[in-house]
Design a protein that fits this description.
Strand order of the largest sheet: 1-3-2
Radius of gyration: 18 Å
Strand content: 5-15%
Largest sheet: 3 strands, antiparallel
Number of strands: 6
Order of helices and strands: HHEHHEEHHHEEEH
Oligomer: single chain
Structural class: alpha+beta
Shape: globular
Length: 196
């Protein structure tokens, strides 16, 4: 696990350096390229202080990658939105290091699905322990219903797209995410963990 962490961190710094950014700025840019984010929400998701976030956003703003604007739902709050230049740069950022992507492609379908399912459960456990902030993943999304279909390959359901899907399609970060109630998230976690 430690070697994977070191590899991932080194890869993030390499990509960020090539783009003239730091890893936090890369993360901000990739997130707001998907949809605008409130400053407070973005700081929480990234696990950094609002002061640190403000510094990174100010730097991205000076580079013409993002802009701040009033939140349409709350004029007192500010949103970070991507510019066209920021969107172009964000599109150049890999989702994961190339060597890791190659390694994952080498896994069989069942192993890849099992890995994603395990990562989902680990991340949820870390969230429950308040060790990491909430992520926009299926397991805590109001649209997610695990193991509701008889098809073993596609047992889960996403109400947002009204479709069945399997473990290999679980999302760890979804742009269409909406937070489930605590009770619904707990039921989903129990159901996903129980059947495996």
């Amino acid at each position: 696990m430690q070697r994977l962490t070191l590899f991932w961190r080194a890869s993030q710094w390499e990509v960020a350096k090539e783009l003239g950014l730091n890893p936090t700025q890369c993360e901000i840019l990739t997130r707001v390229a998907v949809r605008p984010e409130r400053v407070a929400d973005l700081a929480l998701v990234l696990g950094i202080s609002q002061a640190s976030l403000s510094d990174s956003v100010a730097s991205l703003d000076r580079k013409g990658m993002v802009r701040r604007r009033p939140d349409p739902k709350d004029g007192r709050a500010r949103q970070i939105v991507v510019t066209e230049a920021g969107r172009v740069l964000a599109a150049r950022m890999p989702e994961a290091p190339e060597a890791l992507q190659d390694a994952l492609v080498g896994l069989g379908d069942a192993d890849a699905a099992g890995l994603l399912r395990s990562l989902t459960l680990i991340i949820r456990s870390l969230q429950e322990a308040r060790a990491i902030p909430m992520q926009r993943m299926c397991l805590t999304c109001r649209y997610f219903s695990p193991h509701v279909h008889d098809d073993a390959a596609r047992p889960h359901h996403c109400a947002f797209v009204d479709a069945a899907f399997g473990d290999a399609a679980l999302r760890l970060d979804c742009a269409d995410y909406e937070t489930a109630t605590e009770e619904a998230a707990a039921r989903a976690w129990a159901a996903l963990a129980e059947v495996g």
